[in-house]
Amino acid sequence: MYLSRKPIKHYGILFKLLVVFIGIMVVAYFTISTLLIYIKDSVNISRDIVKVRIEVLTISQRLVDSLLVMEENQKKYEIIHSEEYKKNFMAALSEYKNAIWSILWFRYEGFSAWEELHAEFRKAFPDLAQGRELTKEPWIDQDTLNQWMRIVVSARQDNERVLESGMRELFRISEAAVSRGLSGLTISIGVGLLGVLYLTYSLSRPLRELRRGIRAYTRDGRLEPIRVLSKDELGELGAAFNDMTVRLKEEERMRADFIDMVSHEIRTPLTSIRESVNLMRERVLGDVNERQKRFLDIASDELQRISAMLTSLLKVSSMASQIVDLAPVTFNPEELLRETLEKAGPGAEAKDIALTPRVAKDIVSVVGDRELLGQALYNLVGNAVKFSPAGRTVRVGLELADGGQKVLASISDEGPGIPEEEQAYVFNKYYRGARTKRSTDGIGLGLSIAKTIVEAHGGNIWLSSLPGKGCTFYFTIPVDGARA
Ligand code: ADP
């Protein structure tokens, strides 16, 4: 059973939206935190590279240069004792000392080589190291110079190695950050897409089902319960719709019962009144003058009209369950058409309307409920006559369709036609066009009865109309309709 009066609300739409949102936020949060860790690492490495390693590299270059200048000028001085070379040597020595003192600012792990160089200098030039004037000749023996150069070169190479590995690490971190960032982005987009798909699916399915239920009612007048597909607000809406269909069905049944009861109650006295009026009209009960006869004729016509209306009401209430009892026989549809036109003849004549049959030569016999199909055809022809202005033509055709499987009937008139917005509703029970309500009589049952009869035979009924240019009603009946 579809119906549930109080659906238990498990996950509301807001909850679903929240879950999707949180999903996206969690992935985004993890991606951003990972990226921040990478950025922090690379900032540390870059700081070491820029503030220590590159500085040390520059200063060590100054050490190498000054050592080379010292060696060159010492050698030149040994050959030509020029004061100029000594001055140059002293300048380079001072530069060397300054460079060692500058490098001492950067104390890092594995700094011992520079400290050794510092100790060596202090040992060789204690006066200079303590900021005093040099008291002896500045010259240094070649071995010491070579040893200092070796220390500088090796410490410089160590520094370069650390610099290079730092650069490599920086590159690795940036690559990892890019790939993590991209995968995080992809996952967030994926989670977002999946979430949106899930939301669309879970929202649109119940909405489609609801639309189907509403359309079944507005188009075909069928009240069907729908499937309650979700446990959220839309599920509640579906359950409320089902409650409404139950309520409407109940009201429909009560209305049908009421109409049934009233129609039956009226029918019996109406038949007696009609019989009495007819007896008077036919002068069985005594003489009536012409004036009285005229009024009795009017009364008889009106009684005839009311009785036809009651017949329609009773027919519709007996068809209310949509299950029509058919009494199938094999009959010639052309004969049925001619009989129907004869029946509609007087009404058409009164309005000077020509009824023109057009029957295809190859028309075949049909198995079906002859009386009911005659009723359906009569309702359509009757409407065509009713809605046509005087002096026009109503064409009724019969031909084979669907490769001889079906008989197609068409009824065309030259009346006002049916506006497009009304076309979907004219087959509904009790529906009457906005314009017709004022100008013509009727109770809006003719087309609904015709549709029920045609569909009970497995056929279809439809119409095409250009407002202002009349309309054509069509219906098909499978040749062995009642058997199907
Ligand atoms: P009724 O004729 O009693 O109003 P029907 O069920 O036969 O009820 O028709 C429903 C409505 O369809 C009519 O009220 C009218 O507006 C429209 N209709 C039906 N047949 C025609 C037609 N041949 N031409 C124009 N309008 C039509």
Automatic annotation (TrEMBL):
Reactions catalysed: ATP + protein L-histidine = ADP + protein N-phospho-L-histidine
The EC number(s) this enzyme carries: 2.7.13.3
Domain spans labelled Histidine kinase: 261-481
Major localisation: membrane
Domain HAMP span(s) in chain numbering: 201-253
Keyword terms of this UniProt record: ATP-binding, Kinase, Membrane, Nucleotide-binding, Phosphoprotein, Transferase, Transmembrane, Transmembrane helix, Two-component regulatory system
Domain of life of the native organism: Bacteria
Listed GO biological process terms: osmosensory signaling via phosphorelay pathway
Protein's UniProt name: histidine kinase
UniProt source species: Solidesulfovibrio magneticus (strain ATCC 700980 / DSM 13731 / RS-1)
